[in-house]
Amino acid sequence: TTLFPPSAFVITCAGASCPRVTHVSISFVTGDDGLRIETTLGKSACREINGNDHVTLLFPPLSSSSSEDNDMNDKLSLIVDGVVERIFDGGEVVVKPLSAVRHYKRS
């Protein structure tokens, strides 16, 4: 069962600038060096990463059609803090997760 959608909000921030939030498609890749998250970002977000390579990814809850899973999925988001390991031409980035927490939605 998939608990989170194949997209996330990526939050970047360089220096004293305001955080930038971008909604992107993502993919999880597992290799010999562990889990990585791959996505494509726009030019502005890539410029910010050049100034600060730490990012946060926010995965909102994914509603499930199964009534037994629905309560948990409607209440939990996944927040991942990571560091961008690589930026490729075209804005493709590889993020190494550093920490993650599942967080309940407050009513």
Can you walk through the features of this model?
The chain is an alpha+beta fold and 107 residues long. Helix content is 17%, strand content 52%. It contains 2 helices and 6 strands. The protein has a 6-stranded antiparallel barrel with strand order 1-2-3-6-5-4. It starts with 6 loop residues before the first strand and ends with a strand.
Topology, element by element:
Elements: E1 7-12, E2 20-31, E3 34-40, H1 43-51, E4 54-59, H2 67-75, E5 76-87, E6 92-104
Antiparallel strand pairs: 1-2, 1-4, 2-3, 3-6, 4-5, 5-6
Compose a concise summary of this entry.
The chain is α+β, with helices and mostly antiparallel strands.
Q: Biggest β-sheet: count, sense, barrel?
A: 6 strands, antiparallel, barrel
Mean pLDDT: 86
Beta-strand residue fraction: over 45%
Helicity, in percent?
10-25%
Widest sheet, order of strands: 1-2-3-6-5-4
- The helix-and-strand class reads alpha+beta
Radius of gyration: 15 Å
